[in-house]
Amino acid sequence: MRLLTQFWTLLTYCNQGSGKVLNWALLAVIFTLEMLSIYLSIQLIKWTAGFYNAVEQRNLDETLHQLTIFGMIVAGNVGIYLIEFYAKGWLEIRWRERLTNAALTAWLSNKAYWFLSLKSESEKPDNPDQRIAEDCAMFVTHTLSEGIELITRIIGLFSYVIVLWGLATFALEFKLFGYDISIPRYMVWAPFAYVFLSSLITHLFGRRLKETFVEQQKREADFRFGMAHMRQNAAEIAIMSGEQSEREQLDQKFLAVCNNRFRLLRRQVQLGLFTRPYYSTILRIPMFLALPGYFAGAVNFGGLMQLGSASQQVATTLSWFIFSYRKLAELVSAISRLSNFIEKAKAAGAENNISTEMSATTALSLSDVTLHTPDAQQLLQIPELSIEAGTVVWLRGASGLGKTTLLRLIAGAWKSATGKIFRPAASSLFLSQKPYLPNSSLKASICYPASPAGVYDSQITDALTKTGLSKLIPANLEILDSTPMPRGLSGGEMQRFALARALINKPEWLFLDEATSALDCASEVQLLDMLRQELPATTLVMLSHREPGNLKPDAIINLEIFHSHQQAMTAPTVQPV
């Protein structure tokens, strides 16, 4: 029941938003074409009797006529296949677009991607990138192929059984333990009994495939992530000559991939011990079962071929579960992984013990705030703290005190806390000690997190020049939009780039978390003075354990008095300068 609920929820995501009418129209076209395909299959069954009877009677004219009918049926099937192939592909793209959008929304909303990363390994979904990229595609592809096929086969089964019922009018008679046994219309019941028994055996051999597919996806993703992680930290690894250590870790991850792949291979071979012989015989068994009626004179040769063809259609339609077992195992594993990921992402984004409200004034205020680590260790306890707009404030404290965590709380990126925050209705920008450089162009990177649209090239060059990064400016400004973000920047250059980002965004509140720690004293003084001149109305909040340059703050707040080890928890007064 839970699996069906998860499947329906994911299917709902595929049809949400605009364009639902077109999705349903494409589904209607696909099912209409499937019905036409069933109709042509029935015509092919009827054609079988006419063709083989004409061949048996050596009637050349009738044989040629039947070949013409056969050509028309084949042409119709080709047209139906191509149109349906395009319609399915179109619908698959639309479904995947919407499902991927739902997964990305769950992952990015309320900073769920960040809060998930803080959880323990057992609490967070593995490899969100793979869940979104691969499982969304797998769910849509297998749902369309197997779901539509299941529905059309159920509809087609009734049509084929009606045809078979009209042909299989004779009974199977034999003796068993001295008793006379007669099974009327046995050709109708035989495919059901044969396929039912075969389906049970198939599930017996393949029931553990789902868990093995899930584990294979996880180990493949771990291996890819290991290589991506090495690429992202290539400079540090090269400096430390850590190639051997990295190789050992990659070898371990790849060994896990191979070991589980062998396990998957063995289980697929076990399943194949039954399914491969079944595939090879399913088209012949119905014909063999019809031979007693032919030898008894109940049907002629053309009728035998027609009866065999009808029985084959019934048997192959009933065999959908067997033919699709491997894909169904993959689909079930994708449903389980993707649903688990979306559920955990939504839960992580919804969790919140801290109350955030819009400030009635222009000040940023904290009231009765207690800050914890994810494992519930207390960091800071702040009865009252207020920062006025337009001022320069230095939040002072030793390394490891919890300054960065406090900044994350103010930014809305920390939930292991209680209390209230009153935020002003103003734009803000947070610059950390190690700036983030997105995988995009130079212009998009310097405008981040804002859009580069509407930002003039002259603003970019001016910001880079004032922060001492004029070497990044391309000779031809017309290619600024397409110039990739340079890699291999030093720590100081990355911090300069982040300050240039502040000049572009012009936030009303700017938070600097050790944002100049990689610069020498002279450069720090120069850049902070320039920043204050360029953004005179911006509220500047600096977090550091040493005084930032010669920029004189309006107030100094010592976070040591808020630390959980302090005994006095009365609200402090801000130290004026």
UniProtKB/TrEMBL annotation:
Keywords: ATP-binding, Membrane, Nucleotide-binding, Transmembrane, Transmembrane helix, Transport
Gene3D superfamilies registered for this protein in UniProt: ABC transporter type 1, transmembrane domain, P-loop containing nucleotide triphosphate hydrolases
Topology with respect to the bilayer: Multi-pass membrane protein
Record carries keyword tRNA processing: no
Domain ABC transmembrane type-1: 28-330
Database matches in SMART domains: AAA
Location in or out of the cell: Cell inner membrane; Cell membrane
Keyword Transmembrane: yes
A matching Pfam family: ABC_tran
Source organism superkingdom: Bacteria
Residues of the signal peptide: none
PROSITE patterns (UniProt xref): ABC_TM1F (PS50929), ABC_TRANSPORTER_1 (PS00211), ABC_TRANSPORTER_2 (PS50893)
Principal subcellular localisation of the protein: membrane
Transmembrane region(s): 21-45, 65-87, 150-174, 186-206
PANTHER family linked: ATP-BINDING CASSETTE, SUB-FAMILY D MEMBER, LYSOSOMAL COBALAMIN TRANSPORTER ABCD4
Annotated family: Belongs to the ABC transporter superfamily.
Name of the molecule in the record: SbmA/BacA-like family transporter
The species this protein was found in: Paenochrobactrum glaciei
